[in-house]
Amino acid sequence: MTESTFGPQPGAPRIPVLTAADLAVGYHPATRRERRVLDGLTFRLHANELVCVLGPNGCGKSTLLRTLAGLLPPLHGSVFLRDKHLEQIDRPERARLIATVLTDRVEPGFLTLFELVALGRFPYTRWDGKLNRSDHEQVVAAISALGLEALRRRHLAELSDGERQKAMIARALAQQPELLVLDEPTAFLDLPSRVEILQLLRRRVGSGGEAVILSTHELETALRIADRLWLIDNEGALICGAPEDLVLNGAIGRTFARDGVEFDGLTAAFRPITRPRGRIILSGSGVGGQWTARALERIGFEVSAPPEHSQLAGAEFSVRIMEQRSGSIDSAPLQWRLARRRSGSEQELQFASLEALTGFLRAL
Amino acid sequence: MPVAPKNAMLLLGTGAALVAAAVASLALGSVPIAAREVFVALLGPEQVEPTVRIIVWIIRMPRTIAAIAGGAALALSGLQMQTLFRNPLAGPFTLGISSGAGLGVAVVVLASGAGGVMGAIAEGFGGYGPYALVSAATAGAAMVLAAILFVARRVANITTVLILGILFGYGANAITTALLQLAEPLQIQSYVTWSFGSFGGVTWQQLGAFLPVVAVGLLLSAALMKPLNALLLGERYAATLGMSLPRSRFLIIVTTALLAGATTAFCGPIAFIGIAVPHLCRFALRTSDHRLLVPACALAGALIAVLSDLVSRLPGHEVTLPLNAVTAFIGVPIVVWVIFHRSRMHPGAM
Q1: For a 10 Å CB count at each end of chain A, is N or C smaller?
Q2: Chain B residues with CB-CB distance to A65 below 8 A
């Protein structure tokens, strides 16, 4: 706890932006039979903090986020925004405090990007929605925060999915919220857009002052950008913590555990559990070494570094990576020398690509 | 955003065209009157012959005013339906709202005794006939709309909602037909004439009930421009922006029921103005902003209604075309064009 070690922060006491105590979320009995999706949730979220909600499909991420956005009433417990009860804040006030990006598809019609972002000023504008000078400034600022200046007069129908999603986020920023809730903001986007949008949100936190909570399936990116993770495990329990802590204590591995898949804490990726085909000693480091190891693991070999001592502990093969000359991987062609160790005699084969190397090993 | 100069010109042009069409509507008919004489009759009714005065003031003026008010009302109700249901094919006619209003009218006709629609208005209910008619039609329209909305909250697929709207319309029609079995032949005839749709039968007395209702509907439409814009993002997003969904929905339904109900009560069910005009405005102005679309639809709806009414009596002899035939001639190509254009622009939108 930093507070206890270094004393309270200077300035105002740190009231969390969001506090939930013994919260249960789900669907209300008014519509159907009450269905509790998640129960007994307790958490807090501070300003300038980015939290990623992770969990298997259907675990209740969207339900939780919709409850925090005020779209669903809590079934039990309470949510506080600063020191106010979420359900006691009136609608326009709530829209000035919380902005939400949903997974709902927006029919573009003839809305321009500027008009879409300007809708974020809805809780501030007068009866007919006319923007005053400060509204206009906020809209322009939100558009430039997402780098969309060049597209402001475009109709939404002319934008790519990534641009449209950025516009939806700009609209949320134009609401000047204290809390930004994003439900899978990177779903349906191509990889570069996904990384770009999450990086944008990361940069925003700390400069804008909003607290950001987003759900995502991008575990690897979430581990990189989140200040804290909220992990919903298969039993519906919420595990909160710094991403690194959750990797080290195995919580992430357990949450996403499936038959035949394991979480690799080193590479922060899931990989299939396979019975090793054999062991290979790999000499070579850097990017070349990394990718060579991946290629060998892909075809089922257990890869290890050269041992300190001469004994090779039962490894049948060894691979050495040779560089023609030093340089980056773009310029230096690599070569792989495969040695098969059997009863003293050592034969070496040369390969010019990993495709050739793995092809040879697989054919054995 | 400020109104772009091009759009301001389009709005002004539509307004000017509306004035010209209104003058033409006063001048043309089985007895043509020179435009100059129309102006004289308008500015100093004593200075023209009594026949001209009667034709301009008693016969053509209420008809023209009814066309302006009815056209604007139908176009605005169509615009609001299309936004609320997020469906380009929504409109007072397709959603069965006109049929609901028709049911209300049939009830009034039956309750009024032997006089039929016109009798109900003139004599029935001790002079409150027009108010009874407008109330019943609005109530009928609101009933169908409320039923549609009730279903819409349970059915996710909006096309299903549209189909259900059509079915509710058939239901209302069926009740109307059953009711008419109980009616006197004169009442039936009067109802059938009403059901063809016409601005021609509207009198000054009826305008006394019709115009205030439409005026209230126009004011409500103006007040609803902001929530309608928020609804462009869908109901959930609108709620996150701080819009009260139940209240906005309720107000939009009341407004639509008033506008479409009152128009249907006095002018009969008129097809295609409600569905086609909003598209025409969106495509001409290339905007979805209701701050522009509300005035544009009111003006364009009025213009198209006056022109359709003009065309329907253009033959100039004893024969007149049914108004609905004319609006269909204008409306069908627009709707067809819109369907093709829309699906090309946003695949999967329909």
Answers
A1: N
A2: none
Buried b (16+ CB within 10 A) or exposed e, B297-310: bbbbbbbbbbbbbb
Burial class (CB in 10 A: 0-12, 13-18, 19+), A12: exposed
Q: How far is A22 from chain B, CA to nearest CA, in Å?
A: 24
Torsions phi, psi for A212 (to 5 deg): -120, 130
Two structure tokens written together for A265: 């804490």
How far is A44 from chain B, CA to nearest CA, in Å? 21
ipTM computed for the complex = 0.87
DSSP A74-125: -SEEEEEETTEEGGGS-HHHHHHHEEEE-SPPPP-TT-BHHHHHHGGGTTTS
Whether residues B286 and A110 touch (CB distance < 8 A) is answered with yes
Q: Structure pTM?
A: 0.85
Chain B residues closer than 8 Å to A98 by CB: 240
For the stretch B112-156, pLDDT in tens is 765 545 554 444 444 556 778 888 888 888 888 888 878 777 766
User: Max Cα separation, chain B?
Assistant: 63
Nearest CA among B140, B129, B123 for reference residue B258:
B140
Cβ neighbours of residue B219 closer than 8 Å, sequence gap 6 or more: none
Give bridge partners of residue A261 from the DSSP assignment. Answer: A258, A272
